[in-house]
Here is the input.
Amino acid sequence: MAITRPLTGEPLPLDLLNTTWMEQGARRDMFDTPGALGDWLAAHDLPQDAPDAETTAFLVEAREAIRAVVSGAEGAEAAINAVLAHGVRRLRLVDGRPTITYEVDDPARFPGWRAAATLLDLLDTRPDRIRKCANPNCILWYLDTTRNGSRRWHSMETCGNRAKAKRFQDRHA
Ligand SMILES: [Zn+2]
Here is the structure.
């Protein structure tokens, strides 16, 4: 069954965070829907070489470690390093071409490890542009790619409009 999420298209580690979102006050999780894991992996060109349950368990572990890092939570470094410890990025020159290969100690860990490794790349290049939607009731994350870094909401149409309507109400209360 195809699942409709409120925000897609963000870089891998943030898109992993966006597999959970708030819907009518309840937290939804894409991976609770059978078959959705396969869709998500395919969308990110990630292989599925292990059973769903194991792959999902490690993805959820990586997701919460990533959330801890971007939220500045206590214990975040230990959590993300525990995920990263299960794989390496190997650099080689093959037939004159730079080649990167990834090795993980368990194929079920690869998608989660890859998301965590990509978070480190993001922290290296755009750390100041990793943002959470400014709506306190929204748990979505995005990379702010606007020129002046002015994006505040995951979506102007939903969270942005709600904030505008609330300011209007506050002024007229
Ligand atoms: Zn939002």
